[in-house]
Amino acid sequence: MNILSAPFVGGNRRFGAISIFTVLAVAAFACVPVARAVPPPDQDLFYVAAVDPASQPDGAVMRTRSIALYGLPLPVSAWQVQYRTNDTNGSPIAGMATMLVPNWPWFGPGQRPLLSYQIAEDSLDTRCAPSYALRGGWDLGGANTYIDTLFIAEALRRGWAVVTSDYEGPDSRFLDGVNAGRAVLDGIRAARAFAPDGVGLASPIGAWGYSGGAFATLWAAQIQPEYAPDIQFAGITSGGVPADWTAIAQGVDGGVQAGLAMLVLIAIAKNEPDSGVAELLNERGRTALIEDASACGPDLLTKYFNAHVDEFAAVPDVLSHPVLRAATDRQELGGNAPIMPMYLYHSATDDVIPVAGFTDLVGRYCAQGADLTSVHSALPGHNATAIGEAAGAMGFLADRFAGVPIAPGCHGR
After folding, report:
1. What is the pLDDT of residues 185-222, one digit of tens each?
2. Do 9 and 15 form a contact (C-beta atoms < 8 A)?
């Protein structure tokens, strides 16, 4: 099944079918081995703040440029938008978002819907950022961006505008919930201010992310009432939700996804130098902090295939150490329930993110009065569920954009 067959309009609402995903997939395989023509963000002056971010309000557009999505002649208008946001410490920084609008009118009621789509960045360097991949950087560090093309293209097919932010920020802070949430919310503000074809202040807003993208989406939803009360979400969807970071790291440790456990360890040590996490490492671990400071997720999965985190620690069972647990606990979701309607889904047999954390998070949200539909999917594993449950997530957003009312409270299946 190819959900990316885009109906194009030629004078009426019916379009000839064209598979955007097929074009992108072929181009990816053709272009990856070729020397990159697009400079990575740390060599691209466009990423440098155009003005002092402190002089601008949150979400203010500081500069824009038109781009060709993936460097290809696709029927999508695309821009990179630099905007003011704030890091976890409240310091003003320059954020970067990619804005996508299909090249056909919105035929639904009201203004064109705006979907904030969070790609699982899961990395430690800006060359892994979605904006670089979406411009045609063709670095394997952008693998998650290429994979998520499937879902972005379906949103565009429906006539929705899409904004996707580099929510880890210019310092690539993986596993920093407040940093990610603020970047997502200010990216939405910037998209509305930029206001491309059909998008405006009256556009219904949704958000969606899977796995690492769900982490950013839900952090944005949790802090929205305080940080961005001007943004009213029609609804949000998230799947493969990262909850209980200790269990996630322990579950993949020593296996094919052991690089994720190393990513958690390195990111915490990098983001919180005063946390004491770096002091738990041995010489190999300290070397890894230096060597992998600019690694992308795929790099770490390859390098640490079947590795054990304790091989890099000066203490036994480092993933259960109170110092590390205290640091990861600060990044756990569930402190307060989002106030907008939610649709959350997770495989009951997820092989990357244990389902117990998801079940606990749903319980905490529901205990706080959330309006939430939760799905414990029977589909096998993390990746299969990302694809197989996407139709439900997309349908939920479509209903919210159309103003279909929800049954309040929590509902599970």
Report:
1. 999 999 999 999 899 999 999 999 999 999 999 999 99
2. yes
Residue 4: per-residue pLDDT: 28
For 79, other C-beta atoms within 10 Å of its C-beta total 18
CA-derived radius of gyration, the chain: 20
Q: What is the 3-state secondary structure (H, E, C) of 245-304?
A: HHHHHHHHCCCCCHHHHHHHHHHHHHHCCCCCCHHHECHHHHHHHHHCCCCCHHHHHHHC
User: How confident is the model over 251-292, as pLDDT tens digits?
Assistant: 999 999 999 999 999 999 999 999 999 999 999 999 999 999
- pLDDT at residue 23 is higher than 70: no
Token pair, residue 160, equals: 């929705």
Farthest-apart Cα atoms in the chain, separation: 68
> What backbone phi and psi angles, to 5 degrees, belong to 42?
-75, -5
- SS3 of 74-117: CCEEEEEEEEEEECCCCCEEEEEEEEEEECCCCCCCCCCCEEEE
Give me the amino acid identity at 290.
I
Cα–Cα distance, 341 to 325 (Å, whole number)? 31
The arrangement of strands across the sheet holding 233-239 comes to: 61-67, 76-86, 92-102, 161-165, 114-118, 205-210, 233-239, 342-347, 372-377, 410-412
Q: In three state form, how does the secondary structure of 287-351 look? A: HHHHHCCCCCHHHHHHHCCCCCHHHHECCCCHHHCHHHHHHHHCCCCCCCCCCCCEEEEEECCCC
pLDDT of residue 11: 31
The pLDDT assigned to 13 comes to 32
d(CA 35, CA 22): 22
- Sorted by where each starts, the structural domains of the chain and their CATH numbers stand as 5-231 (3.40.50.1820), 245-329 (1.10.260.130)
SS3 content of the chain, % helix, strand, coil (to 5): 40, 20, 40
pLDDT over threshold 90, residue 30: no
